[in-house]
């Protein structure tokens, strides 16, 4: 019985130390989440302005002839899959990887796709599945920078314009609320003029019917859109990657909060067992003393 009591006390100390770690990781995730959300909010005015211009000018017939709108039949599709470099973030990685696998299986199999792996978990998963990896970036999950985001956007755009791939999609976890997220598939290139016309991110009080504004400009609308397009595409990549970073911190905060709660419950359970074991030990000792005293009397 004393040996069992020692084991229980050792387990209580171990769980209490684990709780300190999970609590710290939850606080770190919350701090990183605030930083990422601040960066996203700071970019919203610029995003709304450039999207408004592209939306209002996309109705011009000459814009549809740009290579960014060129829909090619067949060919290679590049899937930019975004996950984390490490675990301890609940279902965050599983949802993204499962979405990637299902999309590939349901659309012709691995031979039709290349994977741009954003995160160590995506890279390792793609290797195990035998997918062709076009490129990979590790060590940046949850801490994406604008410079790296722009570099990735330029690289993807160049691959599309050079004809190396015919379509580019992003696979990532999309933000719903501060306690929820879901896997998403978002098209990057080619652009769909109809989707631009239905762009929902422009503030409602600033929306106008596409083509209803007659801009006086030099050069042509197509030339202006072509000049703005690299910035617009950078913005799309920025939104996807920073949204994925936001959901990663949300997932890690939720997971660590759950782990901390489980530690509290486990400590309570073990403490109760330790108290029972201690009481049983004391009772046994008292009975032995009483028994010995009675034996001496007899």
Please tell me about this protein's structure.
The chain is 60% helix and 13% strand. It has 298 residues and is of the alpha/beta class. The chain has 2 domains: 2-26 and 255-297, Helix Hairpins (Orthogonal Bundle), CATH 1.10.287.80; 34-250, ATP synthase, F1 complex, gamma subunit (Pyruvate Kinase, Chain: A, domain 1). The chain has a 5-stranded mixed sheet. Strand 4 and strand 5 form a beta hairpin.
**What is the strand tally?**
5
CATH superfamily of the largest domain: ATP synthase, F1 complex, gamma subunit
Helix fraction, binned, reads 55-70%
The fraction of residues assigned to DSSP E strands is 5-15%
Any low-confidence stretches, pLDDT <50, length ≥5? none
Features:
Helix Hairpins, 2 domains, five-stranded mixed beta sheet, 5 strands, single chain, alpha/beta, Pyruvate Kinase, Chain: A, domain 1, elongated
Write a short abstract of this structure.
The chain is of the alpha/beta class. 60% of the residues lie in helices and 13% in strands. The protein folds into 2 domains: 68 residues, Helix Hairpins (Orthogonal Bundle), CATH 1.10.287; 217 residues, 3-Layer(aba) Sandwich (Pyruvate Kinase, Chain: A, domain 1), CATH 3.40.1380.10.
